[in-house]
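SUBJECT: protein chain
CONTENTS: sequence, structure tokens:
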Amino acid sequence: MTDRALAVVRAGALTTVQDLGRPGYAHLGVPRSGALDAPAAALVNRLVGNPPEAAVLETTLNGCALRPRCPVTVAVGGAPCPLTVDGRPAAWGAPVRVPAGALLDIGTALSGVRTYVAVSGGVAVEPVLGSRSTDLLSALGPPPLTDGAVLPLGNVIGALARVDVVPQPAPPAELVLRVTIGPRDDWFTPTALRTFTTSTYRVSSASNRIGLRTEGPSLERAFSGELPSEGMVLGAVQVPPDGSPVVFLADHPTTGGYPVIAVVRPTDLPAAAQATPGTPVRFVPVRRR
């Protein structure tokens, strides 16, 4: 067995392998998947000299612990968290050298939800449909990490970034999502549309990689019945029968029968990945480009 590998000592609540995802397969019912906070994943890859498509680890809330079988350089970003190497504090948001056999412990997020761990060479699990991403909806890609798992690493091909530390956006205190209204806004009453764009919702604890669920005023439909299933896109705001908007994230289904009241601008979705339960959410309409 190659010594270019990581042993998982503590998998955490939910740690998955993620990269840029697998776009272009929606017609086969396969979501895009990929890192929910793509800018954070891209930044930690740059810090360790990986190409943009290299796979990283995405942790959820309480981090993970890893033991490399070879010397590696790691960078940890996204949700801020404590980081130690063999019990000694290490820098978050900067390249960190980890000796072979040392314990790298990525702690619980101090704010935000998802922390990203890049390792020099990238996580080199077997790709599926051109991507190493774990897709929780369709169960494609590697399974979520478990204690004792061993992850192969790729070869180092790039130079480390020459930085001490890199600023990263803080997780949102209020999540403001710019939306383009439609295509099924005609399924809702004028009062519901006004409520949607003027009320403050909150992030639900039921949110996951498939969708950010919200709690707040219910949106009343203009008539009863259901739509035939139609294509769904990243950022679609679907409204199920309970009237609470759901923002579709990377592992969303490719079709759905509940009406989509609006679509979130893609540039606003990374912040949604870091919004903790209870975070206020506002939907702000913008004109079509």
Summary: The chain has a mean pLDDT of 95. The longest strand covers residues 72-78. The chain is about 10% helix and 30% strand. The first helix runs from residue 38 to 47.
